Amino acid sequence: MKITFFNSKVYDKQFFTEANQAHGQELEFLEVPLNESTCVLAKGATAVCVFVNDTVSAPVLRQLAEAGVQLIALRCAGYNNVDLPVAAQLGLKVVRVPAYSPYAVAEHTLALILTLNRNTHRAYNRVREGNFALNGLMGFDLRGKTVGLIGLGNIGLITARILKGFGCRVLGYDVQDCAEAAEIGVEFTSLDDLYAQSDIVSLHCPLTPQTHHLINAASIAQMKDGVMLINTSRGGLIDTQAVITALKSEKIKYLGIDVYEEEGNLFFEDLSGKVIQDDVFMRLLSFNNVLITGHQAFFTAEALHSIAQITLQNITDFEQKKPLVNEVR
Ligand code: NAD
Question: Tell me: the pLDDT tens digits for 19-67?
Fold first, then answer.
């Protein structure tokens, strides 16, 4: 069956080609993102394989269905970019990779926390320039600090386990009960308590209409002065302007983000020779206590291997009319 990949990079081609030896599908790798003007390129394909910033809106889905596409295979966990009701109306199936390496994202979350706390991003530059002064590099012990995790799914729980290893008190909030959280010593709290008590707040819930701008001026006001805010989930969870205001007043003392609400215009591309037009993003970059990575939390060899295997299995199951265990409705 023909599968057209949008937004594909060299590493996608490498890992999918390798995993495809067990599936024998026909893979077409396109570098362009999926949107209203590029969806015509899927003509002749039964499935399209898309990533986090591809546009899988109602008009795109209609054109894909008209072109003969039957399956949308997301090679990621989040599916906030897909208009699911319209996909269902058109009879298009949507599958995803619910968990490929939650360890990759949880470990990246810790990388952001530790870098910001111990200023290793600044120390790296200083030492390279022969500046061994420690002024301005003081951190704090993680041991004994309270970390609030919003979302206790795969990634939230692994993050909790790692933080417990550091001796942190871990608070958690989720819309669902989570027995495993209690087993590993996470204290289930209300959002209000989590904001009020946490030295570090880390986001691990999906982006939905309910969670859009969950972190806004009102929720930031509830947080401790000097809080560290970490987001490895989805950019839209944070109202960036409100966070910038809080960084300026030092209410937020550290910000670590792997995702950004307008990242679709920036991330995954080399824009180093261009003038970046996003003034909000450039303001964020101007703070030395803000650490931004370009949606790379998932980017480990183990995760890419797993993404390719699970995505191709999802597609083969669809082809063989087997139950779609990773279907999103
Ligand atoms: P998951 O589905 O296992 O867990 C998400 C949890 O969030 C669930 O327990 C769910 O009940 C909870 N939740 C839903 N709505 C909530 C709300 N309003 N408030 C609090 N909790 C809520 O997902 P996961 O694998 O742990 O991934 C979490 C998120 O991480 C994904 O949605 C995705 O956006 C993001 N992610 C980012 C990267 C990256 O590279 N940066 C990679 C993978 C996933």
Answer: 999 999 999 999 999 999 999 999 999 999 999 999 999 999 999 999 9
DSSP conformation letters of 13-48? HHHHHHHGGGT--EEEE--SPPSTTTGGGGTT-SEE
| Cross-sheet strand order for the sheet of 26-29 | 26-29, 2-5, 47-50, 71-74, 93-95
**Which burial class, exposed, middle or buried, applies to 118 when counting CB atoms under 10 A from its CB (0-12, 13-18, 19+)?**
middle
- List the structure tokens of 297: 């939390």
Question: Quick one: 122 exposed, middle or buried, by C-beta within 10 A (0-12, 13-18, 19+)?
Answer: middle
- Tell whether 329 is covered by a domain: no
Nearest CA to ligand 1 atom 36: 233
The CATH number that applies at residue 88 is 3.40.50.720
Ligand 1 center to 205 CA (angstroms): 3
CA of 156 to the centre of ligand 1 (A): 7
Structural domain range at position 61: 2-100+300-319
Q: Are 243 and 216 in contact (CB under 8 A)?
A: no
Active-site amino acid positions: 234, 263, 295
* pTM of the complete model: 0.93
What is the domain count for the chain? 2
